[in-house]
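Researcher: Quick test of sequence recovery. Tokens follow.
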């Protein structure tokens, strides 16, 4: 296919944000945006949320089939075996939280990078080694996030237990006591719902990095960096801030209308692929009803529902509906989880998808190397320093720093 790659701005059509561009073939998950459906390897998300566990879902994403009973038992054992962290990583987390009060996603990103330094097989380049690293990193991410949550409160980390599920152990490490089985199940469902989602920005980042045949830690670090952004995983945290700012359900409508007038995006709404209701938002809404009743936090659910009503009335015809982030924050906050941990918990779940896709990429690899349409000047000449003048207007929004005289 020949395509003009030097052009005037706007002359060559391309898909901004790569909308609609197919990055590769995948057997992992399918987002049916028109009908508001999500499938992991063909299984509807509603069935997995009702019957599966995070460990089983992770197995499904990695190996493209459900495990048999002994396979699942062994897979869980392997995940348990990798739960603990090197002492240096626990120490780093405590220091980062204490000294710099850093963004928890920045601490997570660094901690995952550090893991590689204490893992003698991190650089081993074979499929079994990559598969082992995928399970190790996925298992350890929950421990890192729980330790970050505790360190932010000045608390010592709680080492993992081997007799609890991935979700229950996460809550145990976060709160220091074994969770109520209902809340453990809610956490399991949150992890299942966030485990994969087609070619989203962070998964794409992960596979682009993996396509250079680099190690699994580097690939996951790219995913974490991408998920941190407010247009992706960072939205759930902002939803909660919005609900707190609105304060009362009766104030929601006026608040949203004012925000829309100011052309503000409302967090927890809209999606590149779903042009209807995100099925994960429906499931989480139903959990939010029960969880907020137990916690006495129904007010936040009511505010979110009031926002949803105005948004769907105003922007539904434009294909803007609630996404997963609208109700996940309400559920997690009602379980006593700090807002700052919402995005890291999203990573605890999504690392299953990142690593599954990274392995899929590794098995059938081709380096990602797209092109830009070059719209800069076609030919300019180097000008000697003494002949150069400052432009009246900068060609980009960036202003070079000048030393004050
Ligand atoms: N509130 C108000 N208007 C919106 C919203 C929103 N949340 N989302 C999209 N729109 C409007 C845009 O203003 C734009 O309107 P216009 O055509 O009149 O200019 C139109 O819908 C298309 O929006 P884009 O931003 O171009 O759509 P895109 O596909 O690039 O963005 C995205 C998708 C980033 C998710 C966007 O909907 C958004 O910013 N939502 C809020 C953040 C959010 O909730 N992110 C979580 C996404 S889900 C996830 O990552 C887990």
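Model:
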């Amino acid at each position: 296919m020949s395509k003009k790659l030097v052009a005037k701005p706007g002359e060559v059509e391309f898909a901004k944000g790569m909308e609609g561009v197919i990055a590769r073939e995948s057997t992992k998950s399918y987002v049916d945006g028109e009908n508001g459906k999500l499938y992991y390897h063909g299984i509807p998300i509603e069935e997995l949320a009702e019957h599966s566990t995070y460990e089983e879902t992770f197995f499904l994403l990695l190996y493209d089939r459900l495990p048999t009973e002994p396979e699942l038992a062994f897979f869980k054992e392997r995940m348990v075996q990798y739960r603990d962290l090197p002492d240096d990583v626990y120490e780093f987390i405590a220091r980062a939280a204490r000294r710099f009060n850093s963004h928890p996603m920045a601490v997570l990103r660094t901690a995952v990078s550090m893991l590689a330094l204490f893992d003698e097989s991190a650089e081993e380049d074979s499929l079994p080694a990559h598969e082992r690293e995928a399970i190790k990193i996925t298992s350890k991410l929950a421990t890192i996030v729980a330790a970050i949550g505790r360190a932010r409160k000045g608390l010592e980390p709680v080492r993992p237990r081997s007799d609890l599920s991935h979700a229950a152990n996460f809550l145990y490490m976060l709160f220091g006591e074994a969770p109520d089985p209902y809340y453990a199940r809610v956490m399991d469902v949150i992890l299942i719902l966030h485990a994969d989602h087609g070619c989203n920005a962070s998964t794409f980042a992960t596979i682009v990095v993996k396509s250079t045949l680099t190690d699994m830690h580097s690939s996951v670090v790219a995913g974490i960096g991408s998920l941190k952004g407010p247009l992706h995983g960072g939205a759930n945290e902002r939803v909660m801030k919005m609900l707190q700012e609105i304060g009362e359900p009766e104030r929601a409508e006026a608040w949203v209308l004012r925000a829309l007038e100011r052309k503000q995006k409302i967090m927890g709404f809209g999606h590149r692929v779903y042009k209807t209701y995100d099925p994960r938002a429906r499931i989480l809404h139903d959990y939010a009803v029960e969880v907020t009743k137990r916690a006495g936090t129904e007010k936040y659910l009511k505010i979110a529902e009031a926002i949803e009503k105005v948004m769907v009335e105003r922007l539904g015809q434009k294909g803007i509906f609630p996404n997963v982030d609208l109700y996940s924050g309400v559920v997690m906050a009602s379980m006593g989880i700090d807002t700052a941990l919402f995005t890291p918990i999203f990573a605890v779940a999504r690392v299953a998808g990142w690593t599954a896709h990274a392995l899929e990429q590794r098995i059938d690899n081709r380096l990602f190397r797209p092109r830009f349409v070059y719209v800069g000047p076609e030919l300019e000449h180097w000008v000697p320093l003494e002949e150069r003048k400052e432009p009246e207007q900068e060609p980009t929004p960036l202003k070079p720093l000048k030393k004050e005289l």
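The CA atoms of residues 290 and 331 lie 9 Å apart.
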